[in-house]
Amino acid sequence: MNFVTTSPSPAKIGPNLFDVLKELLLIKPVFLLGIILVTVAILLLFHRNKSKCTRILVFSVLMYYYLCFMFVNIVGIPSLHEYTRLAQLGESIFHPNINLIPFNDGFSFSFLLNILLFIPLGFLCPLISKTFLNKKNICLIGFGLSFFIEIAQLFTLHRATDINDLFANVFGTIIGYFFLQLTAKLPIIKSLCSNSPTEKCTTYLPAIIITISFVLSFLA
């Protein structure tokens, strides 16, 4: 994953910084469809338990927003708009830029950013489903999402598929998981963990949220 930053001129740094932050944090109208889909799914699953429904809805929407923000503004997954433009230019959609050599550049700043990027995933998944209180499952979802992103970046113009990103993302997911465990003794976190949904249907809820986020990010 490549992280690209730009430096605005000093004279315009105030307004420009505000505009950039506003553009980054606001999601496009198409993403509201995902919020509706997630909300409807959770209301159907927990219609008999309103307190649990409200809590799981909050964490699910937080995860959805986090994923949409990451897909669109940070990792840069393929988009329908990009594919349409390439088709009009007669260009290929497949642009492999692959690094399979671990730590060939040492521990770069990009490696650290990739760790930080996946910490919310490791923190939020166990709050959505107790399935992810299991270390193996949290590692699997971190690996699966990261691997999927790296494969998707083979079909982008300016991104690299890097095995170091995979290591960093999984490590970040594990850090998020252990951060949740470390804070589990706090009353509010303990309550959230102990009341995480145990229904079998919630096992796939994080994966469903990831899928909805990716599809709508592709269409955005």
Which helices and strands occur, and which strands form pairs?
Layout: H1 13-25, H2 31-45, H3 50-75, H4 80-89, E1 98-99, H5 109-128, H6 135-152, E2 161-162, H7 163-182, H8 187-194, H9 205-219
Parallel strand pairs: 1-2
Q: What do you see in this structure?
A:
By secondary structure, the protein is an all-alpha fold. The protein has one domain (31-219). Helix content is 66%, strand content 2%. The protein contains nine helices and two strands; from the N terminus they run H-H-H-H-E-H-H-E-H-H-H. It has helices spanning 13-25, 31-45, 50-75, 80-89, 109-128, 135-152, 163-182, 187-194, 205-219; strands at 98-99, 161-162. The protein has a two-stranded parallel sheet with strand order 1-2. The longest helix has 26 residues, at 50-75. It is globular, with a radius of gyration of 19 Å. The two termini are 20 Å apart. 32% of the residues are buried.
